[in-house]
Write a structure and sequence with these properties.
alpha/beta; Rossmann fold; Transcription Regulator spoIIAA; four-stranded parallel sheet; four-stranded mixed sheet; 32% helix
């Protein structure tokens, strides 16, 4: 949007007139990182304008406005009017806050990334109607709403025209696709209907980003198993392997359902990569609950873990749950699961040794090396070859 208005994008390490920080607020670290970045900018370029947007900006605009050096705070809807706000901004004025009540947001704004000419992340859904006890996302992003299938198709065609070989479908609660902006009503155009339509387009690769286990239907699994375009790779949040903790988290499934989904996927696609999100140190998580999670993940036929250490978030139900897990215990549990993740990925990779799989190589030259991913998400490194950039190569593992 800003490039269309005549702005030129610079690297963060360069001097710029305006710095825009798009924030997360899932963990406390994201808030701290925002403050750290503002201080860096102040030291490097004190006359530059600093704009903060994203989830942290929607949740705590006045807290951000109090950070020295911040000129403009844009909430969930106002970030799409950033060009207008920048024209009215002068360094030295008091910090301007442009936010809104999250309940009033009902529009959907489509977007996709084009920084990497190989792969693009295409947003097709936003917001969430779930109310997990640890999560601030519904307060930061609003109710679940989706793009139209017609507009998704238009964006996919634009991306393929730019030479993009792989499109990753993303959303806050991707499997909830089908709720039209503002209406809040699910129509017949579900996520399954979307992938059926997209499969017919001249795209070489799709990936489905994180999708809730209760929304990952057997229809979707079967479609991916039979598709040449949807990669054999799922990322399915678990959060805990203890039904007790899942209940405290207000998740919408139990470990038995999760296990069924993994088993169905691996029965249909033994080569499929499965990634898992897990939270450690949630209030009430006793040692036996963590052991239940660890043992459950150890026995599951999964490929890797994304491990999050629980951090307290304002205005969430989890704050009332006891006992609170000490910070050093949370960190120990995080380390244990990260070690398990490393072993899982090593084992998954070794299972495919000697196989020929298709790798899409990326354009980045890292000290004479290039990287890419197999269809089933095994990372490959190779000496850089310009003719392989954005090409799908048969690779013997």
């Amino acid at each position: 949007m800003l490039e269309k208005e005549g702005f030129e994008k610079k690297e963060f390490t360069d001097l710029a007139d305006i710095y825009i920080i798009n924030t997360c607020s899932v963990t406390d670290n994201a808030d701290k990182e925002c403050r750290h970045l503002v201080r860096r900018i102040q030291r490097k370029s004190p006359e530059s304008l600093v704009v903060i947007t994203g989830c942290y900006a929607q949740l705590k605009p006045t807290e951000i406005a109090d950070i020295p050096g911040v000129d403009l705070v844009l909430g969930a809807s106002e970030k799409f009017n950033i060009g207008h706000h920048l024209k009215e901004l002068t360094k030295g004025d008091s910090t301007k806050i442009c936010s809104c009540d999250i309940e009033t947001i009902n529009g959907f704004n489509a977007s996709y990334s084009i920084n990497d000419r190989t792969r693009s992340f295409l947003k097709v859904q936003d917001g969430c109607d779930y109310n997990c006890s640890f999560c601030t996302i519904p307060m930061a992003r609003g109710k679940s709403r989706s793009d139209s299938i017609e507009n998704v198709v238009k964006n996919v065609n634009e991306l393929t025209a730019k030479g993009i070989k792989e499109i990753v479908l993303t959303g806050v609660n991707l499997g909830d696709f089908g709720k039209s902006a503002g209406a809040g009503q699910k129509d017949e155009r579900s996520f399954f209907e979307l992938i059926r339509v997209l499969d017919a387009l001249p795209v070489q690769r799709y990936r489905i980003s994180s999708i809730e286990p209760n929304l990952l239907t057997n229809q979707i699994i079967e479609w991916v198993a039979n598709s040449d375009k949807f990669m054999p790779h799922f990322h399915i949040p678990l959060q805990s392997g203890s039904n007790k903790i899942l209940g405290l988290m207000r998740r919408r499934y139990n470990r038995e359902l999760y296990q069924e989904k993994v088993q169905h996927i691996k029965t249909r696609m033994p080569h499929c990569a499965i990634g898992v999100d897990v939270i450690v140190g949630f209030p009430g998580e006793q040692e036996e609950d963590f052991k239940e999670t660890y043992d459950f993940l150890h026995t599951l036929d999964i490929s890797y873990l994304h491990v999050f250490t629980y951090s307290e978030r304002d205005n969430t139900r989890a704050l009332a749950i006891e006992p609170v897990v000490p910070a050093h215990v949370r960190n120990e549990r995080n380390k244990a699961l990260r070690n398990l993740s490393f072993m899982k990925m090593q084992y998954f990779t070794q299972l495919h040794a000697g196989q020929v799989r298709k790798v899409l190589f990326e354009g980045f030259d890292k000290h004479g090396m290039m990287e890419g991913y197999t269809d089933n998400y095994i990372k490959i490194s190779s000496p850089h070859r310009a003719e392989w950039v954005n090409q799908i190569i048969d690779w013997t593992l």
